[in-house]
Structure formats: C-alpha cells, structure tokens
Amino acid sequence: MPVARTRSAALVGVAGHTVEVEADVGRGLVGTHFIGLLDTAISEARDRVRSALLNSRFDWPDARVTVSLFPASLPKKGSSFDLAIAMAVLGAAGLVPPERIAEPFFLGELGLDGRVRPVRGALPAALAAVAAGARTMVVPAANAAEAALVPELAVLPVASLGELVEILREGEARARAPYFDPMELAVPAEEKTLDLADVAGQALGRCALEICAAGGHNLWFLGPPGTGKTMLAERLTTIIPPLDREQALEVTAIHSIAGTLPADRPLLARPPFVAPHHTASAAAVIGGGTGQIRPGAVSLAHASTSLCILTS
Ligand SMILES: Nc1ncnc2c1ncn2[C@@H]1O[C@H](COP(=O)(O)OP(=O)(O)O)[C@@H](O)[C@H]1O
Ligand SMILES: [Mg+2]
To answer: Contact, 10 vs 84, CB < 8 A?
Structure first.
C-alpha cells in the first residue's frame, strides 16, 4: 500500500486542531519531501524521523517519499508530529498495518535513537482527538497522565518507536482507559503546605483576604518590604474554592502549553498563584509569541483571583 494516513493534533492558541498526516511511498527519484505549511522544526522532522526509524532497525523506504500534513492552511509548529509522520511512512512502506494507524491520534517527538519524547499541549491535543471522533491516542509515556484526563479517550503511552511498532503489529489492545480519577490525584498532601494560620497577627490583613476571597474582589497590597504582603497574597489561593472540573481542564490546558505543568500532577485543581516580577515586560504579563503562543502571567492565573503584581 503506497499511501498511508494517520492523525495528529496541532495547537492554535490554546486549542488543538486535527491534522491528517499522509505518506506516499512511490516511484520517482529517491528522496523525501514534506508539504503543508511547515516551520523549520517540522522540516527537521525529516532527519529526526529517518534516524529514529533506522536506529529502531527499520529501513527507510528506498523510494520517493512524500509526506503531507493536511489542512495545509493550518500553521504547524514544533516537533509533536514526529510520531505521526513515522507511523504514516511505516504504514505506506507496509511495515505496520495501515488500517491500525488510521484511527488513533499520534503525538510525540522522536529522539534520534527512536525514543519518544514528551511534548507540550497533550491535553488540548487529547480534547481535539475526542472532538474528531478518535477513541485512541498514542502519547509519550511522560504525557500519559495528562492525556488521560479526557475520559472518552483510551491512552496508549509509549517509550520508543520500536515498542509502538511491536504493539501495532501484534494488534495488542494495550490502550488504557483512564487509570485513575484525575480529580483525586490532583491535590497531593504536600500542596497544602501554605496556610493562612502561618500568618501571625495581621488581623486586618487576614480579614481583607477573606472578604476578597468571598466576593471575588481585587486586592491591593501596600506597605514597606518584609511586612508580609507576599506571604498574605500567596495564601489567598488556599482559601478560595477549588476549581470545578471545567475550569481545572482549562487551567491545565494553558499550563500544558506553557510547559509549566508538573509531571507528577497532571491536573491543576487549585487556583494557580502567579507572581510576576514588577519589572516583567508586557509580553510576560499578557502573553506573546509568534505562531505558537506563550501564555503570559494573566493567562497562567486563569480562573484564579490571585494574580498579584507585587512591588517588592
Ligand atoms: N505576619 C507575619 N507572620 C509571620 N511571618 C511573617 C509575617 N510578616 C512577615 N513575615 C515573615 O517575613 C517574610 C517576608 O515577608 P514578605 O511577605 O515577603 O514581605 P513583603 O512581600 O511585604 O516584602 C515572610 O516570608 C515571613 O517569614
Ligand atoms: Mg513581597
């Protein structure tokens, strides 16, 4: 079968969009060509995927290989398409059954030795996969917990290209349904270390904090250095209610894209506390980036009342 098709997801802002990856292994001058509005990181995928395949003891097809990422109009950044590209090429070359790679979403960057590296934005990608009707998503092992936050999706974590090809060839149904309740996992004990009880005195300050938390108001701290402004502000997140499920997914998606999601804590269930330095640039506070956005402090504090611009 000279043409194989599979799917992956591209990030536009904080939302994932389906990208179809097609590979054609056919006659013509031997070479590899990528088409479909790609940035340099994806053009480099050619060398990464080729090395990963060879080092996983597969042959790179001795033919004209054309890889197309569709829709061509969607800008595609980063290296998260590597795994999908490798699968499409292997499918087109007849090294994995093409029908087994058509349905799942594949997400992951490939190392030159064939290992599957974690990527940013696994959660928005998983949401896009479900929206596109996929039932399975193959992700780097380190992103598995994050992708498994989407209950409709069976997540297959893989550590290397060789392992994935073996699974696809055997047709082994190793995809995991969500293997934990993410809401339960979200609040480990050590996260409770901050406590309003740590503050000595400051009755007025604590009262202001409580009024602010109850009414969702803004709060302005003014005072000389060392009087406990930061200390009080940090503790505001401990007395406002935890995020509901929808908010938690939104906040987690933003932190997933920013790359600030702790690996051991896939779901952020507490309102985040963000304290940008008073010399922070406008881009650091409101976000920026060309093509692929970098969420700023305001976005990182999404659903939280406690974004504090501190003067000291
Ligand atoms: N009311 C307080 N109770 C307990 N510790 C305090 C109090 N006020 C200040 N501190 C101590 O002083 C340190 C500095 O406070 P900080 O919140 O950084 O001050 P600011 O932000 O106003 O400059 C805190 O880490 C804490 O150890
Ligand atoms: Mg301070």
So the answer is: no
What is the distance, to the nearest Å, from the Cα of residue 3 to the centroid of all Cα atoms in its chain?
Answer: 29
Tell me whether residue 1 is exposed, middle or buried, using C-beta atoms within 10 angstroms of its C-beta: 0 to 12, 13 to 18, 19 or more.
Answer: exposed
pLDDT at 294: 85
Fold of 189-311: Rossmann fold (3.40.50)
Strands (E), the chain: 3-12, 15-26, 31-35, 64-70, 105-106, 109-110, 116-117, 136-140, 154-158
Ligand 1 in contact with 227 (CB < 6 A)? yes
- Fold classified for 3-170: Ribosomal Protein S5; domain 2 (3.30.230)
Does pLDDT of 221 surpass 50?
A: yes
**CATH 3.40.50.300-classified regions of the chain:** 189-311
Q: What is the pLDDT of residues 264-281, one digit of tens each?
A: 777 888 888 888 888 989
User: 229: Cβ below 6 Å to ligand 1?
Assistant: yes
288-306 residue pLDDT tens: 877 677 888 888 888 775 4
**CB of residue 230 inside a 6 A radius of ligand 1:** yes
